[in-house]
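(Protein data)
===
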Amino acid sequence: MNKTIAAFAPALALSCALATPASAQGTIDTVTAQNPAEMTIVMMNAGYDVELLEDGVGDPMIASTVSGMPLRIYFYDCDDETHEGCNSIQLSTGFDREKPWNEAEALAVSTQLRFAAVRLDDEGDPFISWDIVTGDGIPTAVFLESLERFGLTVDLTVDIVFADENAEEASAAEKE
């Protein structure tokens, strides 16, 4: 476990156990990628189920869900050795399609949804992401609104990503 996560784990557990309605209303005024544990507390207080983990290179990562889909919050611009002092985060979720998508279909999502950056994995499954620079801190309310808006974008993306597969299922059901 990286030093940052290990250092904040007891405080995170205590803060979650002692969370009161006042803390849920925002006693943490700002969040920053420099403090992943505090960001996790803010999300918990807002009703998200979250887990603070490490990604494949040792940087912090938050696992949660948004709109019923897995959400990963990756931390970037961290110190290469200590994995601390991160400056930005990326909200990311992926969609597991039966049939691979192509680049044109993925690009269509980016043109329809303002903030969604779309990429395809090796199997042609689309992933959307948003990057947020937090620097020394952004208002907690802005962070939580960003999570909410990302969730709305996920909802819209689900409709687009699975439109053809849902149409095929509906057509097959009609024939029965």
Summary: The first strand starts at residue 30 and ends at 31. The helical segments are 3-17, 21-24, 36-45, 103-112, 140-161, 163-175.
